[in-house]
Design goal:
With 252 residues, this protein is α/β, with parallel strands linked by helices. The chain has ten helices and eight strands. Strands 3-5-4-6-8-7 form a six-stranded mixed beta sheet, with helices on both faces. A two-stranded antiparallel sheet has the order 1-2. Strand 7 and strand 8 form a beta hairpin. Bound molecules: uracil (URA) and iron/sulfur cluster.
Amino acid sequence: MDRSQEKIKELLYDFRRYFDQLKEEGVEYAETTHLPGTGERGTGSGGHSSAAVRLRSSRKQEGVLSSGERFRALVETILKCKKCGLASTRKCVVPGEGGNKRRVLFVGEGPGAEEDRLGRPFVGRSGQLLDKILASISLSRQDIYITNIVKCRPPGNRDPQADEVIACWPYLEEQIKLLKPRVIVTLGSPAAKTLLNTNTGIGMLRGRFHDYQGTPLLPTYHPAYLLRSYTLENRKKVWEDMKMLREFLDED
Ligand code: URA
Ligand code: SF4
């Protein structure tokens, strides 16, 4: 087989894989426009020169959405939420963000002042430290999705109250179902306690994997705690936890 035949085979293979993926997402019907033949030059202005593919999804018609669509709808719901008292003091709702490329979910406590102002998670001082921690194990924000136990800022950065955690919990629960993380990392005590449904302190929980409904969950200290208590001992512990995460990702 010469080089161009190999190339065509590769392309067909990619095309096949792409269509298999669409099929899995519920697309049943694809209509392609006429592709330009050899010698026919594309004008770049659409029409026959573009290999446009029109897709029809049976799921949409039946009201069954893909997980990406469900995730976007969930974010829309969260952005409008007024289920607890934090709705009256927040500036912005912070649903979470990230690329989810490596299917690693980080869960913090709740937005701080900077997050509340911008509507984005971990963008203040804690976030900057978190970026460094991630970089130390070669992860970036694009590799992970990051969100919080409560999506609105508790005033004065107090811990979220039980009624606020309970009101907001279904959102995180649904985010986990849709993102299907390979591993969850909780930052600080409220996140670990909520997801593991325990009263045990973070000092006892960290340093090993736990289980959240079949998904490995690794609790570690919150970067805000590290900033407050920047001791060698605490930094070493977080480093140990991150090494465990790195090893898990390398093995998985
Ligand atoms: N601390 C958190 O727990 N979450 C944020 O988004 C920012 C700071
Ligand atoms: Fe809704 Fe959660 Fe915000 Fe409360 S904290 S208003 S439950 S999004």
